[in-house]
Structure prediction request, 120 residues.
Amino acid sequence: QLVESGGGKVQAGGSLRLSCAASGGSLSGYSVSWFRQTPGKEREFVVGISRGGVSRAAADSEKGRFTISRDNAKNTVTLQMNSLKPEDTAVYYCAAGTGWSTFQFEYTYWGQGTQVTVSS
Prediction:
């Protein structure tokens, strides 16, 4: 089971740190990614980290603003989001899978989501 935390409301230009924690199992054997979803839209890949610690972001707009890291000893994955924009407003989900993919259907385990709201 995955549990996200750290969402909330922030003004544009601010920062938030999201955490994804696993209970009942280890994340070390999985790639972990963050997806986000807004009402009426498909869930989209934001950034992910492989089992070996290699990260990639979905778009240039996230590169340099979003940083993903993992701490296998603490069984957590963290998403640091800086310079947030109103268009970053969404429900953010963490997901774990054995592959290394940007496609949501390739992820087996999902958290319940945490709301991020960025005001202008």
Observations:
- The CA atoms of residues 28 and 35 lie 19 Å apart.
- The chain has a mean pLDDT of 93.
